[in-house]
Structure of DUF6087 family protein:
Amino acid sequence: MGKHNRPRVTPGVDPADPLAPYLARRQPPDGRVRIHEPVGGGARHVRPGERRWLKRWDGFAYVPAGIADNLKAAQEWVRENSPDSD
């Protein structure tokens, strides 16, 4: 088999499910449901006092969810309801 013919394995998706290819495409990149980015662009770790765009995954794309005042508030928002926080 060529490398492009190998079935993709997506965490959290049952490969026996007939809708597995569809469900695999609906998973967020890197498994992150919530992200934040500086309002002015650039790296996330630079200028920790700058405001941040808050974005959440809706099953198709990241959509705006609000604005945080600084890096610490944005990180708290990301951790607040992340799937790993259970």
